[in-house]
Amino acid sequence: NTVDYFLDYTGLREFAKANDIGLLALQALRNEENEYQFDVGRHSQPLLWMEEAQIHDVLFVKEALKHVLKLPCLSKRRVHCAGYSNGARFCMR
Hints:
- This protein has helices spanning 3-10, 12-18, 48-52, 57-68, 86-92; strands spanning 29-30, 36-37.
- It has 93 residues and is mainly α.
């Protein structure tokens, strides 16, 4: 499923709009089965094929958050991660 599907399915898009909340919504890459997947497997461990391909979603998100957290009206205490299925496992990392 795509980011747009997740935001619509969960109602996060409308909730964010109604409550003036910023969202950083990330789209996973497709895996060998052509399904979207972040670089986490069972027990929140990195996936070997993504490591070998130099795909590091956790590092990417850390860098993105560095930039987002520089915004003047954002409190680090109020940053949260939400995900569905593999995205939820990704949040655990």
